[in-house]
Hints:
Elements: H1 2-16, H2 23-44, E1 52-54, H3 56-69, H4 72-81, H5 89-103, H6 106-109, E2 112-122, H7 129-139, E3 141-146, H8 151-165, E4 183-192, E5 204-212, E6 215-233, E7 238-244, E8 250-257, H9 264-269, H10 272-280, E9 283-292, E10 295-301, H11 303-308, H12 323-326, E11 333-343, E12 365-368, E13 373-379, E14 385-391
Parallel strand pairs: 2-3, 4-11, 9-12
Antiparallel strand pairs: 1-14, 2-4, 5-6, 6-7, 6-9, 7-8, 8-13, 10-11, 13-14
Helix pairs in contact: 2-3, 2-5, 3-4, 3-5, 3-7
The chain binds 2-acetamido-2-deoxy-beta-D-glucopyranose (3 copies).
One 2-acetamido-2-deoxy-beta-D-glucopyranose binds at residues 106, 110-112, 194, 246.
Amino acid sequence: MWVKSLVALCLLASVxxxxxxxxxxxxxxxxxxxxxxxxxxxxxKEKNMENILIxxxxxxxxxxxxxxGGKSNTASQVKTVLGGNKVKDEHLHSSLAEILTEVSNSTxxxxxxxxxxxxxGPSSVNxxxxxxxxxxxxxxxxxxKINFRDKRSAVKAINEWASKSTDGKLPEIxxxxxxxDGAMIIxxxxxKPHWDEQFHHKMVDNRGFLVHRSYTVxxxxxxxxxxxxxYEDTANNLxxxxxxxxxxxxxxxxxxxxxxxxxxxxxxxxxxKQVETWLSKLEQKAVAVSLPKVSMEVSHNxxxxxxxxxLTEAVDKAKADLSNISGKKDLYLSNLFHASALEWDTExxxxxxxIFGTDKLKNPKLFYADHPFxxxxxxxxxxxxxxxxxxxxxxxDKMRDEL
Length: 403
Ligand SMILES: *[C@@H]1O[C@H](CO)[C@@H](O)[C@H](O)[C@H]1NC(C)=O
Ligand SMILES: *[C@@H]1O[C@H](CO)[C@@H](O)[C@H](O)[C@H]1NC(C)=O
Ligand SMILES: *[C@@H]1O[C@H](CO)[C@@H](O)[C@H](O)[C@H]1NC(C)=O
């Protein structure tokens, strides 16, 4: 009992003790983590949804922008969804900015994360100077008007902007825009993890990835054996693996079933508390890891999903009051395209070669990611979730059925 509560205390302390961020920012990190799980579950419910890739801290900052443009009930509801109702207005925007500046610092983290944000308004809108100034300052937003009368070229212009902002990594955000009469937010991101210990670039070969039992695609797979945090949850038939990224400031946590099966079963278990439990059970072990070496390009329109998890006012044309954007009550949030290219690659820092050929790497556990898995990119310094997602269908050609 005593040991148990001590462990619980230590866990709590590791959550609370962070001095990197201000206390307001820590509150927002905490609520962005809840937002991550709510949003993930809401999206996973959707039929035909395959790969998922969401950055909770970037979604939080987009909500911050909506709060900045909102008034009365619309503004207070955004803050509730954001968990920012415990944070005073004068701290909300600067704290959200503080989080993003910290976690996206490429120099400190040795990780490539390019984030570009744009707010599009219909050609009739006049952006208020104050709003433009503050959304640039806190959220690094660009502003642009767009005319949807020629829809094809409007969509093309959006995709071209996203492509350019991500150095071509994200060539297409959307093929179409349904609701063209409101404010449209776009997050265009490129993320490339840089491993704490690199994979050897030659340890890559083509393997099959089982999207489901009867559908296999061919993907390049990278392999390495190292010492990693590993836990085998035998009650739930799944593996948990944590692989640190450069400077060990962040890590990728993989959650994968033993064998190919729909992710639904694991997703039912996937709560914040369960993930914390899994992480607390990790043990440093030799693990032979095989991961698809692929780039995931995923774009979600979060407008509807945010509406379903409580943001009902801003997305409703009849109710929305976003008059701090334009000075008039003439806008609602019609789209929020949240798009990322995530490149899983071999690159990282040189490995610790002193353990090669020693007992430390003997009899490794196998983590062979040839079927769908869930992952989280966790920032250790701020305790925030940089990404939550799942890889269900990697890019690759269908392989002939094997008997
Ligand atoms: C709306 O903008 C005005 C003027 O810039 C500002 O004083 C007010 O605080 C803003 N309202 C909200 C809810 O942010
Ligand atoms: C990023 O981190 C580096 C090294 O820790 C630091 O010198 C720099 O000021 C940081 N940049 C920002 C924008 O915070
Ligand atoms: C990470 O560090 C390595 C080695 O110092 C360097 O070559 C690489 O450019 C860095 N990458 C980023 C994104 O900072």
